[in-house]
Target: SGNH hydrolase-type esterase domain-containing protein
Amino acid sequence: MRSLLPLLSLALTALSAPSPPFFRATSLNGKALAILPLGDSITLGWKDPSGNGYRKPLYDLLMTANAHTTFLGSYSSGNFSQPHHEGHGGATSTVIAMAATEMHDSVDPNLVLLHAGVNDALVAASVHEPEPIAALGEVEKLIDLATEFWPRAALLVARIIPVDPAEYSEGVETQRNVDSINERISYVVAQRAYFGRRIALVDMSHGPITAADLVDFAHPSPAGYAKMADLWFTGIQDIVARGWVPEP
Model:
């Protein structure tokens, strides 16, 4: 395993590198996207009064780029024309995986957006686990399950957004677990990409999204959701420019 670490580091660096500006500006023009937003209550858009979460601002960005976009999923929330998603309120990665198992053959996405792990971090903190060992494994299984269920789709996996430790009694412990889960997500994405899967990382754990963008312990404000949309949009531009996203 030690000999693979430099290769995985290089793969992660490559996945994080931006595409040339020319391709980033033009690759979405006329592109058909069938997107499955997959995750927990953040994917659902909880605490956003409109129920749109990141999905409507992302849809608006894609429409401005002239991409032909459809959102898929078993559930519907929001006040725009593509309200479908697979966001499960309060769900750990295990519960999300169970839901995906039940519904996966009802949709055929060419792109999956996965943001999951906050509730895993919270559960581990609530029982004061020294390390979120079970959570790390369940998040990894969910990533692999998404590539198994939708093998022709490209997969964007987020390093999950931070929590606000001041809003919860186990907040510091939960954020520590979020950090551990994010490191596992980075490793898994880099490893799977190195071995040929069309999977890439979108880092929402550092930079524009902070505790100031949350309305409670874990859920963004509308402005915070818009920042998530911006990050997803950049990730989509990059993988479309690489030719990873097939036609629906």
Observations:
- Residues 1-26 have pLDDT under 50 and may be disordered.
- The two ends are 37 Å apart (CA to CA).
